[in-house]
Amino acid sequence: MWTKLVPVTALIAAVTLTGATAHADPAAHTEPTAPIGGEALGSRGLVAPTGVKKPPKSKATSYVVADADTGEVLAAKDAHGRYLPASTLKTLTAVTLIPKLDKNRKIRPSHNACNQEGSAVGLSPKTTYKVDDLFKALMMSSGNDAAMALAETNGSLAQTMNDMNAEARRLQAYDTVAKTPSGLDKPGQSSSAYDLALIARAGLANADFRRYISTKIAKFPAPKGYYEISNHNKLLWRYNGMIGVKNGWTSKAQASFVGAATRGGHTIVVSIMRHEGGFWDEVTQLLDWGFSVRGKVTPVGRLVDPLPATALAGPGQQQPSTAPGASVAPNAAASPGISVTPAAQPPLLDTAASKQTDSTKTVGSLVIGGGLLFGLIWVGYGIRRKRSHSRS
């Protein structure tokens, strides 16, 4: 009698296993589970050192002030909150592609590249450009057309997106998901103030990157002759020691910025996300504060170093003990010398909603699987009773 139920039991097992794995995240076992850079950076509120004046107020939903030389994070607010990056994502495009592309290579952009929406440098399919020109257009004029032209020069858009996301993982920028090379809004795209500071720091180590971001005005090829392009970073003209980096804006992302300045042989990085606009004076004040406290306070966290190549080998890799703030308690406990100011959780990017939806689907699958399991057991029980009565 029990042998007749073996196929039903096998089917039940198969259904149960399928329901448990249908919505599993294939990368979940490879990513760490605590905030990258330190526990305090998992807070949604202001995290600042004690014993010195607090950082200047900012209307940005999220920001980071860090010492680029040592990697010490001096203050932060919602450092790992994931938001739309807008054109600040071009820093990752540059960091990824500068080592891959010969800057003296000459190309003619496709019509697709020339017709990109949003900010553009004005590429023409009839004009020949050096890759060096395109990087200037990318980082100075925030050219979305230049971003696409560089992506296509790298082989294809798909290849470039794979390369950019691989570079983000190498840098341990786990909050960053690139969907476009330009930063144009796209579902699932995200970054964080922590990641923007991390990526900018990596870029500053490259001489060509520094040259592109610090150039104020440059000649740019045109179908006939040249025209001038200027850097969108206003602080290059207004702040003493400003190196540059990148600003961005879309109506959904609002204003974002990551910048670096050097004074007295020391470099401070400031990144902000989701600002309503008019942030230049606030960034200036945050930079001044960073220079005034660096080397004098207990850091609230750290900009981590890139992963070694061996750690990127595959799913079995050993991961660092720190990770994105998305899975951390809203207000992490602070260490001595660090002040954590609680804050109401801000509106996060759609990725948080996506994760919630995926979790709901997983629960739904388990409920459906459980219902099916109960139904199969009931059917099996009915078959047994019917056969038992027949034999009687």
From TrEMBL:
<keyword id="KW-0378">Hydrolase</keyword>
<keyword id="KW-0645">Protease</keyword>
<dbReference type="GO" id="GO:0071555">
    <property type="term" value="P:cell wall organization"/>
</dbReference>
<feature type="compositionally biased region" description="Low complexity">
    <location>
        <begin position="323"/>
        <end position="337"/>
    </location>
</feature>
<keyword id="KW-0961">Cell wall biogenesis/degradation</keyword>
<keyword id="KW-0732">Signal</keyword>
<keyword id="KW-0121">Carboxypeptidase</keyword>
<keyword id="KW-0133">Cell shape</keyword>
<feature type="signal peptide">
    <location>
        <begin position="1"/>
        <end position="24"/>
    </location>
</feature>
<dbReference type="GO" id="GO:0008360">
    <property type="term" value="P:regulation of cell shape"/>
</dbReference>
<dbReference type="GO" id="GO:0009252">
    <property type="term" value="P:peptidoglycan biosynthetic process"/>
</dbReference>
<keyword id="KW-0812">Transmembrane</keyword>
<comment type="similarity">
    <text>Belongs to the peptidase S11 family.</text>
</comment>
<protein>
    <submittedName>
        <fullName>D-alanyl-D-alanine carboxypeptidase</fullName>
    </submittedName>
</protein>
<dbReference type="GO" id="GO:0009002">
    <property type="term" value="F:serine-type D-Ala-D-Ala carboxypeptidase activity"/>
</dbReference>
<keyword id="KW-1133">Transmembrane helix</keyword>
<feature type="region of interest" description="Disordered">
    <location>
        <begin position="311"/>
        <end position="345"/>
    </location>
</feature>
<keyword id="KW-0472">Membrane</keyword>
<keyword id="KW-0573">Peptidoglycan synthesis</keyword>
<dbReference type="GO" id="GO:0006508">
    <property type="term" value="P:proteolysis"/>
</dbReference>
<dbReference type="InterPro" id="IPR018044">
    <property type="entry name" value="Peptidase_S11"/>
</dbReference>
<feature type="domain" description="Peptidase S11 D-alanyl-D-alanine carboxypeptidase A N-terminal">
    <location>
        <begin position="54"/>
        <end position="273"/>
    </location>
</feature>
<feature type="transmembrane region" description="Helical">
    <location>
        <begin position="363"/>
        <end position="383"/>
    </location>
</feature>
<dbReference type="InterPro" id="IPR012338">
    <property type="entry name" value="Beta-lactam/transpept-like"/>
</dbReference>
<dbReference type="InterPro" id="IPR001967">
    <property type="entry name" value="Peptidase_S11_N"/>
</dbReference>
<feature type="active site" description="Acyl-ester intermediate">
    <location>
        <position position="87"/>
    </location>
</feature>
<feature type="active site">
    <location>
        <position position="142"/>
    </location>
</feature>
<dbReference type="Pfam" id="PF00768">
    <property type="entry name" value="Peptidase_S11"/>
</dbReference>
<feature type="active site" description="Proton acceptor">
    <location>
        <position position="90"/>
    </location>
</feature>
<feature type="binding site">
    <location>
        <position position="246"/>
    </location>
    <ligand>
        <name>substrate</name>
    </ligand>
</feature>
